[in-house]
């Protein structure tokens, strides 16, 4: 159960504490933030409403802790990450429970997220040793007119304090995907979890605490975005920001200043289906890509672009699969569970009603109970409909003939056609015969992934040795 057993010190009464300087603390504000269960629509948990003064203190401590952590041998950093990963997987049950109650993640998927997060931390430890354990040796006579009078040694060094802001939909997995690269690279880490998902994040952070990381190296600040959001992202003590979420990331990027940014935002993920595609494969991927976790994924399939000659057949195949999706509470491990909040459900419904008013074809009856929206496939969607351009972030998939793409996939048996279309698409990633992954354009800045994150959270340090006379190895 959340907040019990090894996690007992994380909670005080009915309010979960925040984590700073190696300790679980209550905020001096005396206030808390409610976390509403999407299924019951009642308050499930409470977390501390931290103050700006507490943010200042955390940043001060993080800066000091980073200096000594940067001197910690690479193998030791990796060893602690492996230990944290093992503890995380050992205590997957209470963390998964929090995911079920905070964000209505289906039970099986909640456990998978925690286990997968532990695996990611271990992989990052190994990859970090490989990436950071090597540098480069450069000589000066490669440039015209120069003699070999300079030797240059390069290595990757930490940036300082990394601010990590994960989203509600994968609060544990997308938190550790920022935490682990930051730590292996020698940075300190300040985590601002989403409100929905904060308790799961706090439990995850406790696993790092139990692993024995130095005091002050990792902090987890909870609170209202309106009170500490901008204060965190604009704080002069932050040297790098890694954010995953929606349009908030655009605002952050405009305010953050001259620091490295990693922004993974939303997208209009398109699935392009050609005449020769395996329609059974396409239908299976549309269901998986469009309706997993009720479509609340930044890489979910949102738009299907299908050739007219196979459109009707594909629609029937998708409709038959949609009919088999189970709908209900996450505790029952249903395929479709409530979306994260009432405001999200209202937004989705607004898009659907606009499409209905403008003549879209509903392949299923629209049905909603509270935050629970039944899966819906919309055909004959036109560009003048809001849903053609606005991301529903819910269990609604639309078919149309043209879309502004940010990431996508192509289904065809002709590799030549696949490559031509892939090259023509201005997207970050194009999947051939599978659901989409990462994107570009307004979908973000930079790319996530272990290697990219480690490289982004470091900078190159060069040491140049000047020789009195040219020196060449004769062999």
Short précis:
The protein has 475 residues and is an alpha/beta fold.
Content-based structural category? alpha/beta
Q: Note the main sheet.
A: 7 strands, mixed
- The gross shape turns out to be globular
Note the total helix count. 13
- Cα-to-Cα separation, first versus last residue: 67 Å
> pLDDT under 50 segments (min length 5)?
402-406, 439-443
Spatial arrangement of strands, main beta sheet: 16-19-20-15-14-21-22
Strand content: 15-25%
Mean pLDDT metric:
92
Rg to the nearest angstrom?
24 Å
Task: Assign a percent range to the helix content.
Answer: 25-40%
Kindly state the number of beta strands.
24
Can you describe what's shown?
This protein has 475 residues and is of the alpha/beta class. The chain is built from 13 helices and 24 strands. It has helices at residues 52-69, 74-90, 92-103, 107-132, 173-184, 198-211, 225-233, 248-255, 279-291, 308-322, 342-357, 415-424, 450-456; strands at residues 11-12, 15-16, 18-20, 23-25, 32-36, 43-48, 136-139, 150-158, 161-165, 188-191, 218-220, 240-244, 261-264, 270-273, 303-306, 361-362, 368-369, 372-373, 376-379, 396-399, 408-411, 430-432, 444-445, 458-466. A seven-stranded mixed beta sheet has the order 16-19-20-15-14-21-22, sandwiched between helices. Strands 11-10-9-12-13-23 form a six-stranded mixed beta sheet, sandwiched between helices. A four-stranded mixed beta sheet has the order 1-2-6-5, with helices on one face. α5 (173-184) links the parallel β9 (161-165) and β10. α3 crosses α4 (107-132) and α4 (107-132) packs across α13 (450-456). The longest helix is centred in the first third of the chain and has 26 residues, at 107-132. It starts with 10 loop residues before the first strand and ends in a 9-residue tail after the last strand. Residues 402-406 and 439-443 have low confidence and may be disordered. InterPro entries: Ald_DH/histidinol_DH (IPR016161), Ald_DH_C (IPR016163), Ald_DH_CS_CYS (IPR016160), Ald_DH_CS_GLU (IPR029510), Ald_DH_N (IPR016162), Aldehyde_DH_dom (IPR015590), ALDH-related_metabolic_enz (IPR051020). This is NADP-dependent glyceraldehyde-3-phosphate dehydrogenase. Its EC number is 1.2.1.9.
